[in-house]
Automatic annotation (TrEMBL):
It holds the Pfam family EPSP_synthase. It catalyses: 3-phosphoshikimate + phosphoenolpyruvate = 5-O-(1-carboxyvinyl)-3-phosphoshikimate + phosphate. This is 3-phosphoshikimate 1-carboxyvinyltransferase. Residues 31-442 form the Enolpyruvate transferase domain. The gene is aroA.
């Protein structure tokens, strides 16, 4: 590993032990190698982009395999509030979206969803009146300024509780039914979602949009590429040939019938579990090509000691990750895939050598300050994890059980679960926070440990492995 950066100023005291809350979840310890297949629901990022595009489309469209979780349901509720009809099909993952004239004089609850708070203000600018946005207390500290300043620069009135252009929730976007569009500069170094939100609505601006990123760094580029790809899939012309500049032509958004890929970032902790416990974890439906940053998961896990294989399955490719229980430290720039940092940090705390995670200063504006949260909670378990200017340095130490605080952050909860596979006595506070993107996470985690598939026992009463071409619990 290269020389670690000097640590960011740390609190002098060790984190105090916290008493277990009644809702704390005793993370199960793995008692042997895993052999499980985990069916992961639809991608949050794709579901919420496809919902927005369906709402802006020229006619009714359908999403299949859509995520149903707090973030997705907040998006659905917000679109309904704006006058878009979203109806469930035969199963909850099928959503029929019928656009309508966008209504003003309404209020939108963003919860803690970055995709809702950053993607919908440009849509609200197309509504026929003021749209008020507010969210969870923690949402009120997430950065919003650049997207609101961009709307202001494009001629949209945006007001907050104080003077000037607001930089945080709550705020009001004063829709007039039209946005002239044109050129705008945006500093997206705090979140790629500022770019994605503006691009998603831009084809409906009269002159389209030319957006230039002005900041020194740009996180989550795959998520911007996902935005561009989903726009092109609905017939919108996007020129991204110049680095840091995106040009969206004005024009209709086509209605589509689309299938949502599984959420590869949510697959990450399950696949990482194979490194911690040893054995094999498989995720069916692994896309052959994708713009999801979770595409980096196999390579990252290989660098940390796993072997990976893509196997053909009845419902498409199955990614299989196999570990021995030995984990290697890693020095990695996670700028492109900050969502994976909590999983990598948990693995790093269990590794046999130090790790350095770089390029993720923007995680300080996620669901919580994720760098501080990870450093505090890994330290609470007896580990050593220090913040740097743009990441974390993790030095493995023997860990012990404690309450693992989650700060309303779903990915803190999944990190705690991963650590708990090896460290007895970890109690994950508020595991229900995983409902942000993965409701039922704790039951899925237990099923993975039981080696079951979709709740079915892995072994029949005769003790033989359940029938599938891939061994116990496998199959799409
Ligand atoms: O556009 C998206 O769907 C997302 C972009 C990323 O945001 P940041 O660029 O703010 O990290 C990512 O972390 C988030 O979970 C989802
Ligand atoms: C940062 C995340 O979410 P959000 O979409 O709320 O930004 C995340 O899911 O890791």
């Amino acid at each position: 590993m290269s020389a670690p950066e000097p640590p960011h100023p740390q609190p002098a005291a060790q984190p105090a032990p916290v008493p277990a809350r009644e809702d704390a979840w005793a993370a199960p310890v793995a008692i042997g190698p895993l052999d499980a297949t985990v069916q992961v629901p639809g991608s949050k990022s794709l579901t919420n982009r496809l919902l927005v595009l369906a709402a802006l489309a020229a006619g009714p469209g359908t999403l299949r395999g859509a995520l149903r979780s707090r973030d997705a349901d907040l998006m659905i509720a917000a679109l309904r509030t704006l006058g878009v009809a979203v109806a469930e099909g035969g199963d909850p993952g099928t959503l029929h979206v019928t656009p309508g004239p966008l209504r003003g004089d309404v209020a939108i609850d963003t919860g803690l969803a970055g995709t809702v708070m950053r993607f919908l203000p440009p849509v609200a600018a197309l509504a026929g009146g003021p749209v008020r946005f507010d969210g969870d207390p923690q949402a009120r500290v997430r950065p919003m300024g650049p997207v609101l300043a961009a709307l202001h620069a494009l001629g949209v009135k945006v007001t907050g509780d104080g003077p000037g252009i607001p930089t945080h929730l709550p705020f009001i976007v004063h829709g007039t039914g039209r946005v002239a569009g044109g050129s705008v500069d945006v500093d997206a170094s705090a979140s790629s979602q500022f770019v994605s939100g503006l691009l998603l609505a831009a084809a409906r601006f009269e002159r389209g949009l030319t957006l230039r990123h002005t900041g020194s760094t740009l996180p989550s580029l795959p998520h911007i590429e996902m935005t561009v790809a989903t726009l092109r899939d609905v017939g919108v012309h996007v020129d991204d040939s110049r680095s840091g500049i995106w040009q969206v032509a004005p024009g209709p958004v086509a209605a589509r019938d689309v299938r949502v890929e599984p959420d590869l970032s949510n697959a990450a902790p399950f696949l990482a579990a194979a490194l911690v416990a040893g054995g094999t974890v498989r995720v069916p439906g692994w896309p052959a090509s994708t713009t999801q940053p979770g595409a980096l998961v196999p390579g990252l896990l290989e660098r940390m000691g796993a072997t990976t294989a893509v196997e053909p399955g009845p419902g498409g490719d199955v990614l299989a990750v196999t570990g021995t229980g030995e984990i290697r430290g890693i020095d990695v720039d996670l700028r492109a895939a900050g969502e994976l940092a909590p999983t990598v940090a948990a693995l790093a705390a269990l590794a046999d050598s130090p790790s350095r995670l770089r390029g993720i200063a923007h995680l300080r504006g996620h669901e919580t300050d994720r760098l501080a949260a990870l450093a505090t909670e890994i330290t609470r378990l007896g580990g050593q994890c220090e913040e740097t200017r743009d990441g974390l340095v993790v030095t493995p130490r023997p860990l012990h059980g404690a309450v693992f605080r989650t700060y309303a952050d779903h990915r803190m909860a999944t990190s705690g679960a991963l650590l708990g596979l090896r460290v007895p006595g970890i109690e994950v506070e508020d595991v229900a926070t995983t409902a942000k993107t993965l409701p039922g996470f704790d039951a899925m985690w237990q099923r993975m440990l039981d080696g079951t598939r979709d709740g079915a026992p892995a072994h029949g009463s005769d003790g033989r492995a359940g029938g599938s071409p891939h061994g116990r619990g496998a199959g799409a």
